[in-house]
Amino acid sequence: MTGRRSAELFSRACRVIPGGVDSPVRAFGSVGRDPYFVASAEGAYVTDTDGNRYLDYVQSWGASILGHAHEKVVEAVRAAAGRGTTYGAPTEDEVRLAETIVEAVPGCEMIRLVSSGTEAAMTSVRLARGATGRDRVVKFAGCYHGHSDALLAAGGSGVATLGLSGSAGVPRGAVADTVVAPYNIVPELDDRVACVIVEPAAANMGLVPADPGFLEGLRAGCDTAGALLVFDEVITGFRLGRDGASGRCGVRPDLWCFGKVIGGGLPLAAVGGSRALMEMLAPLGPVYQAGTLSGNPLATAAGLAVLEEMTDDAYAVLCGRARRLADGLSAAIGGAGVAVQVPLVEPLIGLYFGSDPVRDYDGARASAGRGDYSRFFGAMLERGIALAPSPYEVSFPSLAHGSSEIERTVEAAAEAAAEMVERR
Ligand SMILES: Cc1ncc(COP(=O)(O)O)c(C=O)c1O
Asked: Cβ < 6 Å from ligand 1: which residues?
């Protein structure tokens, strides 16, 4: 149950902040309750304003891969803040972060730092349009690329959670050149297409892995049509491994969007690509893009501290634990007699109730429509486990989620599933 202090804060928030939250999914509407307000967080846990401690699988929607308030990150941010929080002039850490990304991701030769994944995706589309002289953008239903006008159509994440097909306030003209295709089917492309933008593992409609051949098919289709391929790796970048989804699957896009992990929990994201494409950005080229706080010194310090910790060994540990958790959840929930799918892509974990494997947005919606997720979410929260408050999101175990946290989660899942069966 939401505690008294969280309830008071939510009621105050609703008077001055639309829906009481600064990002829609935080409102907990789709799981039928009010949000807890966080007072502090450490490692795998968050503590709310009523003193309830939750084992947290949201981890700022994937921004915290080391867990909350990791000492090296806190120290780096503290030290950076002491040198000034923003200058509006270039810094060495921006160079170091761009070098780190370029070194880790094969084919990505240059990086422009921005402040959010939305900006990264928006810039990638503008760059693709500028480079090709074409207007059309192909995206996939259930993929989310932030909240810029052209990319909201059939968006996953909060757009899916709220059951919207797009957004009011987006002029027809802004989406006239956006084509939405079903995930996991290679669409027909022609010489009007500037770019195809895709999440290489779709993690905003639950978790839908790319079918074998899908990403390869997109690469081949883009090459034939003269279109650019954009991998939105805001979630998968530096989450699946240092080389992200493109490194894992061996398909090289023309442009990458990064975010979340690379900012170490501070507002930072990036667009990257080949030198030839990236040099089309201002001040060198005709495609304009800018930002007062781009490459902010606190965010670059946090990002560098995180990427230093995330060695190949660290990814192996994280992925191993995630596999144990996914297997455990599947056995615990299934064992209680509740049909469930627990897709896993490296350390990303999805949860779909129902017996049909999910390959696209229609499948994700069919699973969410059963209503089981919100019952499971509530039963887990009562046991101190905070999952994402929407069936269209994924779980983000962090390096701070150790064996005892995984065991506790699996035990709670068995009880929660048994409770769901009892109450049917
Ligand atoms: C794949 C993907 N792209 C873009 C975004 C937008 O990022 P931001 O919320 O930082 O604007 C998100 C956010 O969740 C995302 O998951």
From this structure: 61, 116-118, 121, 144-146, 157, 199, 204, 232, 234-235, 259, 269
